[in-house]
Amino acid sequence: MRLVGVCSAAAALAVGVADTAFACNIRDFSAVATCDDSGHGLIRVTDKDGSGTPASISLYIKMTVPGEDDRLLDTKTIEHPTAQGVTVDFAEDWAPDSTYRIHVKAGNLVDEDIKPLLTTPSQACSASETSPSPSDTPSAQPPKETPAQQPSPSQSTTPAAGSGTSSNPSPQGAGDSNLAETGADSHTPLFVGIAAALVAVGGGVVFALRRPRTSRSS
């Protein structure tokens, strides 16, 4: 009988230890600050409670002002935790080197914070950084030509009518140029007139000189 009692006590102790080993406790929970695929920050809490006890997870941010209470950000519930682990994500664009407190409430078994407190990495997620204003955002369209590259109406490659920079001289300009080269300029009529006057004067002198001789011979 004494041997049976010892065996029963040993079995009860083993069952109690096993129940304690599988019972939910704060060591089943962990938290990490990370980034999602789009570059936004999130805080992920994992529950590896093999007993399957539902747990309520509350996320707080530690305030830097002494005496000010931590600010509650959000609360989520893990309904069916497993020993392999079930996660819940809090969308939080955390700042570098910030401190968060995660409180766990699981039935009557757990009602405490995950230790140690969560401190975020020293580098923020890419989407958490300061975003450029719309005016500073590069356009996806090809860049347009600058005014220096695009000819203005006054700089058109087609010469304007009557422009002095035309490479094709007008017919009148060509005639003037040929006259200047051959010496037939606008003074030619004057020279012709002078020559005619000299001829007329010479003829008159000859006539005047011959007239007296005619008179004497008669």
TrEMBL record:
Keywords linked to the UniProt accession: Membrane, Signal, Transmembrane, Transmembrane helix
Domain of life: Bacteria
Signal peptide: 1-23
Keyword Signal: yes
Keyword Signal: yes
Compositionally biased tracts (Low complexity): 126-139, 154-167
Transmembrane segments: 190-209
Region (Disordered): 121-185
NCBIfam families, sorted: strep_LAETG (NF041528)
Protein name, per record: LPXTG cell wall anchor domain-containing protein
Natural source organism: Streptomyces spongiae
Phylogenetic lineage: Bacteria, Bacillati, Actinomycetota, Actinomycetes, Kitasatosporales
